User: Which sequence fits this backbone?
């Protein structure tokens, strides 16, 4: 199973949108996908599930056994025609696991994920911080994607996230590879955004900025609002986004 962590130390950059977009892109290809929602806000969970179960990723963090994770995993309620996506749901109480207690405590999600079978891809949606939950995700993953936006503070956030990835690589997870940085919500014909994209290339190197960049498209809000995979909208914008998601997925699976 390939496991990818989607992270950023800010909210609203598009982590959840990218998580769900990659999940449905992979399901369309016939892959079995598990979305792991490590954000206490649980946005991915509420988009994928209308019913709340009694067991969540919080139980897995407390007791990372095969029995717990199997009990917590639930099928997603999106139209089944898109393929198989299951979700390891979040719970607001997982915020208590975000306090950093040292690297000796890491590895719970990794252990639980290693105990299950039948998935080709696990996508971990991280909280908007670089605390213990994001470190759990980076410990469990072989791939990481940093999501940012073309803003002044975007570059700073990416710098911090890169440092975090290096620390995990040098410590608990030498197998972790940066798939790249996704520059999201990019406006065409904006000098400011062109400048921020160029700044990011300078910061991370051309090969680490995933191409193409992701344009700002209303399709993301439409998908969210209607509870459908973005690929199912069938609009011009959604088709454009779907193509880009496919290109990102190729890199995650490589
Ligand atoms: N490329 C995009 N174009 C337009 N809106 C977007 C794009 N990506 C994300 N959004 C919107 O931005 C908001 C925040 O995205 P979200 O994925 O929830 O961010 P995060 O999980 O990082 O907090 C959502 O309303 C989402 O629909
Ligand atoms: Mg989110």
Assistant:
């Amino acid at each position: 199973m390939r496991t990818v962590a989607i992270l950023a130390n800010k909210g609203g950059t598009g982590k959840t949108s990218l998580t769900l977009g990659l999940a449905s892109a992979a399901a369309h290809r016939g892959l079995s996908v598990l979305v792991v929602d490590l954000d206490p806000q649980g946005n991915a969970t509420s988009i994928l599930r209308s019913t709340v179960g009694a067991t969540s990723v919080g139980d897995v963090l407390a007791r990372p056994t095969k029995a717990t994770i199997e009990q917590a995993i639930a099928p997603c309620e999106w139209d089944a025609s898109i393929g198989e996506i299951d979700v390891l749901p979040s719970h607001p109480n997982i915020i208590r696991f975000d306090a950093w207690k040292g690297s000796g405590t890491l590895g719970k999600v990794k252990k639980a994920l290693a105990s299950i079978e039948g998935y080709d891809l696990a996508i971990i949606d991280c909280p908007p911080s670089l605390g213990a939950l994001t470190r759990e995700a980076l410990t469990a993953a072989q791939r990481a994607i940093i999501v940012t936006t073309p803003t002044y503070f975007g570059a700073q956030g990416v710098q911090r996230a890169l440092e975090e990835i290096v620390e995990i690589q040098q410590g608990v997870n030498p197998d972790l590879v940066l798939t790249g940085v996704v520059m999201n919500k990019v406006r065409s014909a904006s000098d400011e955004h062109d400048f921020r994209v160029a700044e990011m290339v300078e910061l991370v190197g051309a090969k680490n900025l995933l191409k193409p960049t992701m344009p700002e498209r209303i399709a993301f809000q439409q998908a969210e609002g209607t509870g459908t995979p973005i690929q199912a909208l069938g609009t011009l914008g959604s088709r454009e986004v779907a193509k880009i998601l496919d290109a990102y997925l190729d890199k995650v699976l490589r």
In short: Residues 139 and 172 are 6 Å apart (CA to CA). The first helix runs from residue 15 to 28. The two ends are 12 Å apart (CA to CA).
